[in-house]
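EI: anyone free to look at a 443-residue chain?
SC: sure, send it
EI:
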Amino acid sequence: MTMIHPPSAGPAGPAARPPGDPGQPGGPGYSRDPGRGGGSRIAGIPITLTPGAYLLGVLAAGFGALTLPALDPGRSVAGYLAAAAGLVIVLLASMVAHELAHSIMARRYGLGVPVTIGLFGGVRHGRAQRPGSPGEPELPGPGAQLRVAAAGPLASLLLGVVSAAAAVALSALGAGLLVVTVAVAGAWINGLLAVANLVPGAGLDGGRIVRALAWARSGDSTRAGLIAARFGQVSGAILTAAGVTAVALGHLAGLWFGLMGLVMVAASRAEASQVRTSAALAGVRVRDILPLDGGLAPSARGWQTVQAFLDQQSPDEDGRNQLAHLGTTAYPVRDFDGQLSGLVTLTQLLAVPASHRADTRLAQVATPAGSLTFTTLDEPLTDLRTRLSVRPASPAALHTTGHALVLGPSGELAGLLTPADFARAAQFGALRASTAGAGPGPR
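SC: here you go
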């Protein structure tokens, strides 16, 4: 039985460590979140601007360059550039302040929530993780969730009032129109952030507030999640209808509202499905769904070519294709020393053109071990699914999304979980829950 040890160098790297080591790559405490450890810090909280945030800044600068000269003609080029830069700073700073308020409030409950700003605002303030309880997406209770969700809109509302007061004061002091415009923009931006985020939709503060209130009323977080998802679907449908009506009346801006409504409906349905699945998997651990044989296919050798590997799987004496007969879709890949170096799936093999299979090695197409997810037999499935939902850090990991390699007590490779295993577990969990809810049948 080959043990998996963290080599000093190489592709297996630290990801091959047992996942019981919190904070290590591949472990339950590890998150490939771009907000962790990168960018600057405010009040000890990491702040990261994604490429989407920079694109948003470029769009804001372009908008300022087009509108400011018409608003206040006759100013110098430097004045217009300074005002446009001010608009960009106000926009990004307002978004950071909104998300920072969430993070500061969440920190009161022992949760570490980095701030990550993307094209549409905060990327993940709801994915709070309690130190020592990795993968846990919940705040301690409905009151905590309500306070964390409301902190962002309240901060934006406060900044909007301050910006409006500053605009009035600057105007009274005779400041230039460009300066006053930047202050007015701050009031509008923060007011819009506060109002838009209070819409009861999936991923928005309003949706989280609805969930917290429903949770406090019913005492059931699962039911509260479903109620919030229904609110999101209704809100999205209303927004879509409003957008279609606006377009019918000749207002092209309705396209944006219609698109946002459709996205909100889809996100709310996905959230409802996520809530049901999490409820079905509550109390289930990895060992409970691991196939009896571990779900492991024979290991592939990283130095083999794709064609040589496929030739080994040629039809047997009974004419059965072994790839299809084994029923596996992913194969561990090992190096010359027998150490795990990656995982290769049928989709990765299929992506190699037939003309290149003879000179392409499995190690070249497999997902490196450093990009794989590892788990233990006793990890709760809800925690593991939370870790698996993190966006892959590299394109190579896209083919193995939803896969997890299971390590035994001594660090040996004990099994492999695939998306099919999770789907099967969710179905059995839902059947178990419905059976328990129905109670004993008639005698």
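EI: Confidence is low (pLDDT under 50) at residues 1-38, 125-137.
SC: 👍
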